[in-house]
Write a structure and sequence with these properties.
- By secondary structure, the chain is an alpha/beta fold.
- The protein is built from seven helices and seven strands; from the N terminus they run H-H-H-E-E-H-E-E-H-E-H-H-E-E.
- The protein is globular and about 60 Å long.
Length: 246
């Protein structure tokens, strides 16, 4: 009965989003979403999300300086930089390499770079999290990935690349929305929204249990918290937040 209800409600939601499905069928939606819609809507939604999560992010990144290399430098790689929402939390003098599979965030990215001149921007790479071949192995002290693992093609492949580019003792910082408790109404809502949400929001998957992927990765230490972020009428809750050490 529940599965039938989910399928029915999915169909109703798909009917409401029929113009987008039609554009996708015609091959128009993906390039439009990538170049115009997603960069625009991400900046608007992220502004709301950042206000809700700012204190947790401040606490998350508080120990970033502890992972400086013996030379005193802190080299950081960010996967899925987007428009640079995390720049404000990085310590002064930090050397940042930015990566994103979508190169269409220039306006928002430039604004945040101008606001955050306390850090050094080393490189900007158009790259997927699963393929960071342009970054040498063991070359960075920290990797940051926030609200990105929901949309990569393979979480496990991305985590393998994270471990490859980190030096021994380096840290991986993460903040992700994840699947709700399977017995909850939130999970029921996530299942209904899943196909249409994934289409509209550039591959974002609502029901990934990312904490399990982190547990199975070969980190020597894992610090993860399950938190609730007040985002009414959205299926992107709950969240996990924390860091792992290579």
């Amino acid at each position: 009965m529940t599965e039938a209800t989910i399928l029915l409600l999915r169909a109703c939601l798909a009917l409401l989003a029929m113009p987008i499905y039609l554009l996708s069928f015609l091959g128009i939606w993906e390039p439009f979403c990538r170049k115009i819609f997603f960069p625009f809507i991400l900046e608007k939604l992220s502004a709301i999300h950042e206000r809700k999560i700012k204190k947790q992010k401040q606490e998350l990144f508080r120990n970033l300086p502890d992972f400086r290399s013996p030379s005193g430098e802190l080299k950081l790689l960010e996967i899925g930089t987007g428009y640079g929402a995390n720049f404000q939390f990085y310590p002064p003098g930090c050397k940042v390499t930015c990566t994103d599979i979508n190169p269409n965030f220039q306006q928002g990215l430039s604004r945040n770079m101008n606001k955050n001149q306390h850090i050094h921007y080393e490189r900007f790479l158009v790259a997927a999290g699963e393929d960071l071949h342009q970054v040498p192995s063991g070359s960075v002290d920290a990797v940051v990935c926030t609200l990105v693992l929901c949309s990569v093609h393979s979480v496990n492949s991305t985590l393998k690349e994270v471990l490859r580019v980190l030096r021994p003792g380096g840290a991986f910082y993460f903040l992700e929305h994840v699947a709700a408790d399977p017995s909850s109404w939130k999970y029921f809502w996530q299942q209904i929204c899943y196909p249409t949400w994934k289409l509209v929001f550039a591959g974002c998957c609502l029901t990934r249990e990312i904490w399990k992927d982190l547990e199975q990765a070969n980190f020597s230490e894992l610090n993860v918290q399950h938190i609730s972020v007040a985002l009414p009428w959205t299926p992107i809750q709950p969240h996990i937040i924390g860091y792992a050490v290579k």
